[in-house]
Design brief:
Elements lengths: L5 H19 L3 H13 L2 H22 L12 H59 L9 H6 L5 H31 L4
Helix pairs in contact: 1-4, 3-4
Length: 190
């Protein structure tokens, strides 16, 4: 198996670190709700529904013909058939959406990885072109600040840290503005 380049491994570690950090920030009650909702989007849940409604129908039939003493509410296809169909259809749609979401997440991770790798390759190409420019005798040697800056590959962790800090500052500023607006609305007019 081929080893991944060091930069790709670093990018993957950064992405995993971001996900781990986000998972740690989720409150316990939110995690519980997500776990339950995830269970509803699994094929086994649809199978369990089918088994439950089939068993309920059979027991209801046997109770109707007098073969079984049944204290549980009877299943009536005329009254509950549409409800059961709607539940089964919505569960099927949820299963499909769960699978599509997983594929979309994998695709977005791949696209992110390719974008990071492309940016790093472009930075390397710029560095090589700058070296070539310096080495060629017939090309005027000059200092190019933009080319100098573009030679440095972007560290995704640094970008993430700056982005999170900026978002935090913006969030604080928005909260402050909302608070000031609330105060002006609650103050009596003099």
């Amino acid at each position: 198996m081929n080893q991944l380049p060091e930069q790709v491994q670093k990018n993957i570690e950064t992405i995993i670190g971001l996900q781990a950090q986000q998972e740690q920030n989720i409150p316990g009650h939110h995690r519980l709700v997500e776990t339950i909702a995830t269970a509803f989007g699994q094929p086994w849940f649809l199978y369990a529904e089918l088994v439950f409604f089939t068993v309920w129908s059979i027991y209801s039939y046997l109770a109707n013909v007098g073969l079984l003493d049944w204290e549980f509410p009877l299943f009536n296809l005329h009254e509950q058939g549409i409800d059961v169909a709607a539940l089964l259809i919505s569960t099927g749609v949820l299963i499909y959406q769960t699978r599509q979401e997983k594929l979309d997440n994998e695709r977005s991770h791949l696209i992110l990885q390719l974008n990071l790798l492309t940016e790093q390759k472009i930075a390397k190409l710029i560095a090589l072109v700058e070296e070539l420019r310096v080495d060629l005798p017939n090309v005027q040697n000059r200092y190019d600040l933009e080319a100098e800056m573009m030679q440095q590959a972007t560290d995704p962790q640094v970008v993430l840290d700056v982005l999170q800090e900026t978002l935090k500052q913006v969030s604080i500023e928005v909260d402050r503005q909302v608070s000031e607006e609330d105060q002006t609305l609650t103050e009596p007019n003099v």
